[in-house]
Design a protein that fits this description.
This protein is α/β, with parallel strands linked by helices. 38% of the residues lie in helices and 20% in strands. The chain has a five-stranded parallel sheet with strand order 3-2-1-4-5. β7 (214-217) and β8 form a beta hairpin. The chain is globular, with a radius of gyration of 17 Å.
């Protein structure tokens, strides 16, 4: 689920699909979410207080060892809230990853960003880059000094990202035309470069997550081999 700048059109889009998001995403990309969960479980094993930002109601990892899991979204999924209402260590709250002003510094042992960053597209690439940096800085702020920022992100091959930048206005106009959320996908190389340039801390590991045979694209089930997408 997306966390964005103050944009009424984007808010309306996510308000409309919030309740169905998790079911759609999990049913179309079960292999991806299973593989991502294995990586997240390994990193979250020693964590107690965790934030999952923009998760859209998708909780694909183990939560039994957490004292608290805060699921923070621009638009809350009523389906997810109802599903986990009796799970005492899981709560849902509204929030924007660009401005997590209601959360104090150093609150969490881990912050999860699962398929969020590519949704922070602005009206041009400079704005997109600013949004991603702002989001990462906010996540680092609310982490404890020894906390973990866990990023699972949809990416594209390098040559396609170059096309994205060249045709940026055209691609964003297309998304508006089909009434879809605006997105921008980094390549793994450029996203890692951005993170390193920000000096956020030690990057402990980076690897490709197998997404399986199908991928969620424009809210449709598309064979992975027909796209340029990967997950880092």
């Amino acid at each position: 689920m997306k966390m964005i700048q103050e944009d009424d059109n984007e808010n309306i889009y996510w308000d409309k699909i919030a309740d169905e998001y998790a079911e759609e995403a999990l049913s179309i990309q079960p292999t991806f979410y299973k593989n991502a969960a294995m990586l997240l479980n390994r990193e979250l094993a020693d964590c107690s207080v965790v934030a999952d930002i923009g998760n859209g109601g998708v909780i694909n990892y183990k939560t039994g060892n957490f004292a608290k899991l805060d699921c923070i979204d621009l638009s809350l999924s009523r389906t997810a809230v109802e599903k986990y209402k009796d799970v005492k260590n899981i709560g849902f709250k509204e929030g924007n990853v660009l401005h997590l002003t209601e959360i104090e510094d150093g609150t969490y042992d881990a912050v999860i960003l699962q398929c969020v960053l590519h949704h922070l597209a602005g009206h041009n690439f400079a704005t997109t880059n600013h949004n991603v940096k702002q989001a990462l800085m906010e996540c680092m702020r609310i982490l404890k000094p020894d906390g973990k920022l866990l990023i699972v992100e949809s990416t594209v091959v390098s040559w396609f990202e170059k096309i994205e930048r060249i045709l940026y206005p055209v691609m964003q106009a297309f998304f508006r035309l089909v009434k879809f959320d605006t997105v921008y996908q980094y390549s793994p190389q450029s996203l890692l470069k951005l993170v390193r340039e920000m000096n956020l801390g030690t990057i402990l590991s980076s690897q490709i997550v197998d997404v399986g045979s199908t991928i969620w694209l424009l809210r449709r089930k598309v064979p992975t081999k027909l796209t340029t997408c990967t997950v880092e």
